[in-house]
Amino acid sequence: MQWTQWPTLCEDKDKDKDKDKDKDKDKDRNKDRPQALNWITLAMDEQHGRARAVTEPSSELSPEARLMALREALCRMAGQPGGFQTNALRRRAWPHLVDNTATFIRHFDGDFEARVIEHPETLQVKLDVDRSLIHYPPNLSPVKLAKLRQHLETVINAVLSIHPELHYFQGYHDIATLFLLVMNKRQGFVLLEHLSLTKFRDFMGPSLEGATTMLRLIFPLIKQVDLELYAFLIRSEVEPVFSLSCVLTWFSHVVDEQAVIERLFDLFLASHALMPVYLVTAIILFRRDEVLSGDCEFSAVYGLLSKVPPSLPYDLVLIPHALELSARVQPNELIELAGQAMFAQRAPTTAALIAAQFPHKPSRSTTQPWRVGLYAVSLSVLAAAMLAANSWIRQQL
Amino acid sequence: MASYNYSYIFKYIIIGDMGVGKSCLLHQFTEKKFLPDCPHTIGVEFGTRIIEVNGQKIKLQIWDTAGQERFRAVTRSYYRGAAGALMVYDVTRRSTYNHLSSWLTDARNLTNPNTTIFLIGNKSDLESQRDVTYEEAKKFADDNGLTFLEASAKTGANVEESFIETAKTIFQNIQNGSLDLNAAESGVQQKTQPAPAVDLGDKPAANSGCGC
């Protein structure tokens, strides 16, 4: 079996970009698979209080180093075909993929259900939960459905009650649904809370600007790899809003197959916050002939690209391509490219948005240390990139 | 070279609170069937159908917007250049009716003065759960100069009529000259036949969100 061709997901700052060395790395990657499984065995044993029952490589390492190594192995595994494959493994793996050591995140450790209070979005959450869990899982009994919906409502309301600075968006419940289908209620809450404070943070501000700014990275990325397609898209005057639901919900709103969404969540949990943008881009590139053979006109292109076809070859083509793209044009580089493009256009809305974001930047960066690419897509980062003052961001990504 | 089997393109938007059935109405109109578990819309979705009005083939280009307030920043840019606006509420939920003034203000402010605004009271099949009377909504429509129908995306009642009546009004406005095809953002594009790729209508402003 081959586990080659895919760059590692965990960003290695000193990673050699030289593609000629890929062959040499193949051997190492082939070793990752059994090694990753060993580390997972380790994690399971730790959970059961049997941390002694470890495999050879881990016993030489400190507990911190062991966890770090486990995380790296899991990240690599998430990029390989099928990701973590089973939900049993996901329940072990996903909690390791969130950085619980990030000091600026106020995690809630107590009885989260007791903290639920009425908040401005309570009704909206209820309305959305009431029409959730429609397409999957199959054959859900009415009793189980009612219970799952109740859990879903509790978990969402708990996050919003404990963190009143977070604003709910429709689609958030799609994400939460998936967490609850894979994890138990408590774990689901922990994951949702963590991601709401990190990778989804920019979607949960007072406005959706964080998300729409993220979408503005798609065309500059296409420009780097497919000029003909890029020129066509620009000529059509289409806007990348057609990808909003993919990016905002990590595809959970646009894909109907639970197994596919779970597999995509493996990838996104193990990657930097911009991975959904790379995957969206990989899908557009995959559909290039379809796009180019259609009318070069806003609504035609929008109508085509806003619908994600069923049964796309995620594992065979799209995820490897997204990973390749993210290695070729790395997130910090992409932000810089997009920043320059926008600056060149002097789009008044963008300028206004960035100006509006500036006051937030100092307070955020002085009180909250930056970790593992958090807020990588926030407007304040983009603004910094546009001012070519982002060397420190590069270090953090 | 492109050729068209229609003479005009009319741009529509569908607006209204979340859960009133905007996407279901669109689905019923374009696919002629009811989607019972219609998912919520994120951002803006898009559908088309070619209809015939007064012997003219017209392509309706319909932008279906998200109902949640949070998405309004995104959806508002799609109002520009709409020839028709379908404003939807749910006859079984009074709050969705109470919010119509806000939707109407948006529609008036963000479209051109000649945009045809059509009010739809959806879910008319749920008579036993009715929360807004026909008379009350009709008065609101008359007071504000809107055409009004109660419809049901589920049974299909009045769905065709709502979309087609709107098109008839727009077509009438073209014929009597009150809708100027050369005006910016008229929401109507005329196609010559057999058509070279030349638009008789004005090109929309860049980033207007309108491909007319």
UniProtKB/TrEMBL annotation, chain A:
The keyword Cell inner membrane does not apply. Residues 10-34 have a biased composition (Basic and acidic residues). Keywords: GTPase activation. Pfam families: RabGAP-TBC. One of its GO terms (cellular component) is endoplasmic reticulum membrane. Residues 1-36 are annotated as: Disordered. The keyword ATP-binding does not apply. One of its GO terms (biological process) is endoplasmic reticulum to Golgi vesicle-mediated transport. InterPro entries: Rab-GAP-TBC_dom, Rab-GAP_TBC_sf, TBC20/Gyp8-like. GO terms for molecular function: GTPase activator activity. Residues 84-272 form the Rab-GAP TBC domain. This is Tbc1d20 protein. The lineage of its organism: Eukaryota, Filasterea, Capsaspora.
TrEMBL record, chain B:
Its EC number is 3.6.5.2. One of its GO terms (biological process) is endocytic recycling. Keywords: Acetylation, Cytoplasmic vesicle, Endosome, Golgi apparatus, GTP-binding, Hydrolase, Lipoprotein, Membrane, Methylation, Nucleotide-binding, Prenylation, Protein transport, Transport. CDD domains: Rab14. Pfam families: Ras. Residues 185-212 are annotated as: Disordered. It is a lipid-anchor. The keyword Transport applies. GO terms for cellular component: cytosol; early endosome membrane; phagocytic vesicle; recycling endosome; trans-Golgi network. It is found in: Cytoplasmic vesicle; Early endosome membrane; Golgi apparatus, trans-Golgi network membrane; Recycling endosome. Belongs to the small GTPase superfamily. Rab family. This is Ras-related protein Rab-14.
